[in-house]
Amino acid sequence: MIRKAPISMIMTERVITLNKTDSLEKAEYLFKHHNIRHIPVVDGEVVVGMLSYTDLMRLSFADITNEDEGDTDALVYSMFTINQVMKKKVVCVSPSNSIKEVAEILATKEFHALPVVDNNRLIGIVTTTDLIKYLLKQF
Prior knowledge:
Keywords: CBS domain. The chain is built from six helices and five strands.
């Protein structure tokens, strides 16, 4: 294991993002289509929030594949905006933060993904899954 290894070694660089004016239907589509659980919400390239699949699940029955549920989801989604549902106080990390530092943040906080920003610009995302995969490679 490399001591002081930067998080940029293991972060995902191609980040799926949402704008706070996007619909919750679009968010659900992105979660399911890309098989992801966290999406940074941006204004340009600046992170303004984070939406998790769990946040969306609290509103609807998004994981039920019954066709009849689509109408219910659309009705519920029309009552809320991404800006209302997203977490607004987002902890971001720098690409030079060490993997250990980021692991400590994730281990002590109640979230499982952190945007990676450089000069206020989103350049990646790191998740608990990224950390587990990194650790597994060490064995």
